Hints:
This protein is an alpha+beta fold. It is built from 5 helices and 11 strands; from the N terminus they run ββαββαββββααββαβ. It has helices at residues 54-62, 86-97, 176-183, 197-207, 243-252; strands spanning 22-26, 30-35, 67-68, 77-83, 102-110, 116-120, 138-149, 160-169, 214-222, 229-233, 258-259. Strands 1, 2, 3, 4, 5, 6, 7, 8, 9, 10 and 11 form an 11-stranded mixed β-sheet that branches.
Amino acid sequence: MFQPSSIPSLAQPPEPDDAPLHILWRDEHLVAVYKPAGWLVHRTGLDAHETRFVLQTLRDQLGCHVYPAHRLDKGTCGVLVMALHAQAAQRLGQAFAGQEVRKQYLALVRGWLPDAVEVDHALRPDDAPEDAPAQHAQTSLRCLARLEWPEAFDPRHAATRISLVEALPATGRRHQIRRHLKHVAHPIIGDATHGKGPLNRWWAERLGLQRLWLHAHALELAHPMTGEPLRFEADWQQLGHVADVQHWRALCARPGWQACAGLPATARPDQTASAGAPVSGCSISGAAT
Length: 289
């Protein structure tokens, strides 16, 4: 559902349940894996006590060297692509740097986001001096579904609102989606850096867990060696036993979600209801349309 692209998703038989990392697709040049929330992509001095690293685990799992081409934040789960040799790594890195890779994310955010929002807001790196120039950054946001929780976080209101949002970053700045959603006053639920701490804790109590509600759902790119169009996605059907996916599916199964108006039939977060009508859930399938 909600796939705007006609590129078919690539799928291989799922890894055994006890596999360290779930391999979504692999050839002799590339490997696409599912990164669980809470894992770092590689070692860093900023998190010296962490023991779970995608790079080292995947190297041991495959028995060969792997080359990272992009990153996902520690709290973000979803699709991560790595190269299996230096030439593929160079070309893959150029594709990401040249903004030739289409990235599709899901986020749970504060409030009711409008149906569509284009964010064109330059960002300065977090660790850059204040006089450093900001870098161009652009993200397309689309509301998939909205929910009104019948309890008040803010005593001025009778209920508390959240939205399920699709985010398509056109550029690749660090924390871009998180910072852009904060910029439009719809921070991601569970974002300890760019969100609202009291609100995060309030939602954690009601949803039953504390986490960053940001999911890297799909990547589209040209194969760095053959030019073949590729689409890798975190198929929720095949990954139904993964804890992160179970969290998202449980969230979407809650009653009270309303599909946002203006979505095409193939982009709906619900499967049967008309846009704007109450639905029993916002089940989002990873299957290709």
